[in-house]
Amino acid sequence: MTNLAALCTTIVGKILLAIIVWFVGKFVVRKIVGLVGKIKALEKIEPNTRTFVLSAVKWLLYIVLVVSIVAILGVPMASVITVLGTAGAAIALGLQGSLANLAGGIMLVIFKPFKVGDFVEAAGVSGVVKEINLFYTVLNTLDNCRINVPNGALMNANVIDYTAEDTRRVDLTFASAKSEDPARIQGLMQEVMAANPKVLKDPAPFARVSGGTNEAMQFTVRAWCATADYWDVYFDLTQAITEKLGANGVQAPAVRVISDK
């Protein structure tokens, strides 16, 4: 009974110590991650790389904490290493998708096909990049929905970055009656684009007949603008050209048959 009492006391002591180490360790991990985040070198790098590094540091510290707790409980480290090796192989087979996401996250940080704040379209979804984590990239859609996209899917998909360049081209298509004068309509469209301060002068705005049917002519309008002004120019030109053609008596004015993103 004396030996049993001593054994129980030892076991309970180890468990209590392990619990204390766990809570203290969590506090220390948070503090260390916070201190790492304040390093000036990290503050100068891109937000997505910074988030990735901080996530990796946090997970590494938690692994060290768990191993320390196992050692406190008196489990032989040789046995722990053997179990971890076997479990690691089994987990690797069961988590192939997660490992692919992890590899994808590393590749995204290295090759940087896009950055936080870009508006991208990939893997069947589109939105503004908010975070690039170890396993997922977080997108916010235009209607403010949050989408978590696996990094593995992003690395294997065609990614369209709409905000990577400083300028973009707005493409619109209008239609008028076949009896109208094409040059007159093109002149009206050019007047609208010239009056819009957000439309760039170089490259010059474009308005030409691009097709039609027996009843209508189709006009293509192209205007370059700053990327941040894309949607303003898109909607402003759509409304202004429609109103301009109507005010000048153009038959069947501004029936927009096609509009590109």
Plain-language structure description:
This protein has helices at 2-37, 40-44, 47-72, 77-94, 96-111, 151-155, 182-195, 230-247, and strands at residues 119-122, 125-132, 136-140, 146-150, 160-161, 167-177, 206-212, 216-226, 258-259. Helix 1 runs antiparallel to helix 3 (47-72) and helix 7 (182-195) packs across helix 8 (230-247). The protein is built from 8 helices and 9 strands. It is α+β, with helices and mostly antiparallel strands and 261 residues long.
Give a short synopsis of this structure.
The protein is an alpha+beta fold and 261 residues long. The chain contains eight helices and nine strands.
CATH architecture of the largest domain: Orthogonal Bundle
Helices, by number, come to 8
What is the strand tally? 9
- Stated plainly, the CATH topology of the largest domain is called Helix Hairpins
Can you tell me the CATH class of the largest domain?
Answer: Mainly Alpha
What structural class is derived from the secondary structure elements? Answer: alpha+beta
Give the biggest beta sheet: 5 strands, antiparallel
Main sheet: which strands, in order across? 4-3-2-1-5
**Gross morphology:** rod-shaped
Return the string of H and E elements.
Answer: HHHHHEEEEHEEHEEHE
Strand content: 15-25%
Helical content class? 40-55%
* Quaternary state of the chains: single chain
SSE blueprint:
Blueprint lengths: L1 H36 L2 H5 L2 H26 L4 H18 L1 H16 L7 E4 L2 E8 L3 E5 L5 E5 H5 L4 E2 L5 E11 L4 H14 L10 E7 L3 E11 L3 H18 L10 E2 L2
Antiparallel strand pairs: 1-2, 1-5, 2-3, 3-4, 6-8, 6-9, 7-8
